[in-house]
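// run 5 | inverse folding | seed 20
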């Protein structure tokens, strides 16, 4: 089955998504620039069949074989070995997915032209800090639901923070001299983690996507990406936000420590039931994995842990693979279109740690407008 203009193609392994087309369906007369989801070559390639490459003590590259992968460690770690074994079990599924998706990817992206995106995002952190200070002084005034019309009428840009904002029609909103394109029927709360409690207003959600900013080595090397200690996720008010029909999809890295934490600590704390794990496989526009499948360090895929409310009775298929091109800063594909056959009709949907808005979604995060800047969009070729 295909959805829209080839935005989703169902396959035997799961589905192929064309994220810019899926997201463009949220807008009238606008579409995402293709450059928001575009990668025409791998991040790096493997020149040999060796597992990886490293530098020896005098600075020259030397190739490592499989035995070296364990020898270079001072002591093999049980978790590391288990991770390699887990990857080995998944490898045939990923190879089949690459073989099944490659021709479709080439066919679809051959007709596209890459539209570059200027990634010069406005830093709202200063205004966020100001709003937080005002919130802590008189928080009661900020625990409100505002419409975009209220903000436009009052001219109160600071109200964009720490309030639930509703928007019933598509519009361009100017905030602090930056234009943002807002989809119709979108709701958002832009706040720091400490103020997420504002989101608990009695509304329950049938589909929740959570994309936590997991700590990883690249974060520790000075990236602008803000991480969150994973234990703080226990403080998310998920029990107050899920409905009895709720499916919860949690993005996680390939660090087995985080997956174990989700299954053994997080889900029981939230009163949810683990159902299965899917994977997002990242391919280039030419149908190649963005990282060789043989790599033992970085992987061209990310897990998606699926959980549900204990009352949810629908079967969720196992071992599904969602294939797509990654977005800028490894922006992930939208998942609602993947789960649409498993959700109740007209579901209430929520995304946590969001960096963009969606039609018919409530979105929360401290960077929730990041990818709504007008530079990510262009006039639609086929006005809806």
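// decoded
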């Amino acid at each position: 089955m295909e959805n829209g203009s080839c935005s989703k193609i169902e396959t035997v392994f799961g589905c192929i998504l064309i994220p810019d087309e899926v997201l463009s369906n949220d807008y009238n007369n606008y579409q995402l620039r293709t450059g928001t989801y575009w990668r025409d070559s791998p991040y790096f390639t493997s020149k040999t069949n060796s597992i990886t490459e490293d530098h020896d003590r005098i600075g020259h590259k030397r190739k490592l074989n499989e035995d070296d992968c364990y020898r270079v460690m001072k002591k093999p770690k049980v978790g590391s070995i288990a991770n390699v074994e887990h990857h080995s079990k998944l490898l045939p599924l990923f190879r089949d997915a690459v073989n099944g998706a490659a021709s479709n990817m080439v066919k679809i992206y051959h007709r596209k032209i890459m539209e570059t995106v200027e990634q010069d995002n406005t830093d709202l952190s200063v205004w966020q800090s100001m709003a937080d200070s005002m919130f802590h002084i008189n928080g009661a005034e900020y625990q409100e639901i505002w419409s975009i019309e209220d903000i436009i009428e009052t001219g109160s840009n600071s109200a964009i923070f720490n309030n639930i904002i509703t928007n019933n029609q598509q519009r361009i909103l100017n905030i602090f001299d930056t234009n943002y394109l807002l989809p119709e029927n979108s709701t958002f709360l832009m706040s720091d983690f400490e103020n997420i409690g504002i989101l608990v207003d009695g509304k329950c959600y049938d589909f929740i996507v959570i994309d936590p900013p997991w700590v990883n080595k690249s974060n520790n090397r000075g990236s602008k990406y803000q991480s969150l200690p994973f234990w703080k996720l226990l403080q998310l008010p998920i029990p107050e936000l899920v409905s009895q029909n709720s499916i919860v999809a949690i993005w996680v890295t390939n660090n087995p420590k985080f997956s174990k934490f989700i299954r053994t600590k997080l889900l029981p704390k939230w009163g949810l039931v683990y159902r299965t794990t899917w994977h997002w496989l990242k391919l280039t526009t030419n149908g190649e994995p963005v990282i060789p499948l043989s790599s033992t360090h970085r992987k061209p895929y990310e897990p998606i842990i699926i959980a549900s409310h204990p009352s949810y009775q629908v079967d969720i298929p196992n071992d599904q693979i969602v294939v797509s091109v990654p977005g800028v800063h490894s922006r992930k594909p939208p998942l609602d279109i993947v789960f649409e056959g498993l959700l109740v009709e007209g579901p209430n949907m929520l995304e946590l740690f969001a960096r963009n808005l969606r039609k018919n979604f409530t979105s929360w995060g401290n960077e929730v407008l990041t990818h709504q800047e007008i530079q990510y969009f262009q006039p639609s070729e086929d006005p809806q």
